[in-house]
Specification:
The structure is a single chain. This protein is of the alpha+beta class and 218 residues long. It has one domain (16-212): Aminopeptidase, CATH 3.40.630.30. It is built from six helices and eight strands; from the N terminus they run ββαααβββαβαββα. It has helices at 34-43, 45-48, 65-81, 132-147, 162-171, 206-212, and strands spanning 16-19, 22-28, 85-92, 99-106, 116-123, 152-157, 174-185, 188-198. An eight-stranded mixed beta sheet has the order 1-2-3-4-5-6-8-7, sandwiched between helices. α4 (132-147) links the parallel β5 and β6 (152-157). α4 (132-147) crosses α5 and α4 (132-147) packs antiparallel against α6. The longest helix has 17 residues, at 65-81. The chain starts with 15 loop residues before the first strand and ends in a 6-residue tail after the last helix.
């Protein structure tokens, strides 16, 4: 196992795996993705509203072209610095063209004695419940442990988000407790349940664990 400490060494990483003959792939976020990204956000406005990050100063999600550009510039700088991995989730059904279906962001990546990070993600409503997000999270976690040499990965989830809770349950994340008023979400400070995995707990990896399950969720 190696620890990637240089600037942007795996900025272009594109982890991918098959799901019942279809393909799930994590591709780096690019400015060229703006139109597809914004279209997907618009049709998922109501679906994502309860889970969208906000701030006390601006309690509405920034679903705008300017917001996309700012997000992409900020995350790209983090990727080049080695502190973030901003991915979009692409899904290719058999016989069809690749389709953008969501987003998964890693960061901040902390080195030194911590070697840890956290994940955040969302998925298009029409692709939920098919195992896509479960496999996307598995791909990201395996990359972080096996390629980046991290020791701990965390995911925090609102207690009401049953779909996301199913993802961490299926992948074997360990619950660590409740964080009161942890993040500003949907216009207010929200409690989150905290889940984590360490290097010692993943065995052959989460993609292998995901494939070994009877059915996909997420």
């Amino acid at each position: 196992m190696r620890l990637v400490t240089g600037r942007g060494q795996d900025f272009s990483a594109r982890p991918a795996a098959e799901l019942d003959g279809d393909l799930v792939e994590l591709r780096p976020l690019r400015m060229a993705d703006e139109h597809r990204f914004m279209a997907l956000r618009v049709i998922n406005t109501e679906w994502l509203a309860p889970w969208d990050a906000t701030t006390p100063e601006d309690p509405a999600p920034r679903n705008s072209s300017a917001g996309f550009k700012e997000m992409t510039r900020t995350l790209s700088r983090g990727a080049q610095a080695g502190t973030h991995l901003p991915w979009l989730i692409w899904f290719t059904a058999q016989g069809e063209q690749p389709r953008l279906v969501g987003q998964l962001t890693v960061g901040p990546i902390i080195g030194g004695s911590a070697r840890s990070t956290s994940l955040g993600y969302w998925l298009d409503e029409h692709h939920a419940g098919r195992g896509i997000m479960t496999l996307a999270v598995a791909l990201a976690v395996d990359h972080l442990f096996f390629r980046r040499g991290l020791h701990r990965v965390e995911i925090t989830i609102r207690p009401e988000n049953t779909a996301s809770l199913r993802v961490v349950e299926k992948l074997g994340f360990r619950e660590e407790g409740l964080r009161l008023r942890y993040l500003h979400i949907d216009g207010d400070w929200r409690d989150h349940r905290s889940f984590a995995l360490t290097e010692e707990e993943i065995g052959e990896g989460l993609v292998a664990r995901c494939r070994g399950s009877q059915s996909g969720v997420g």
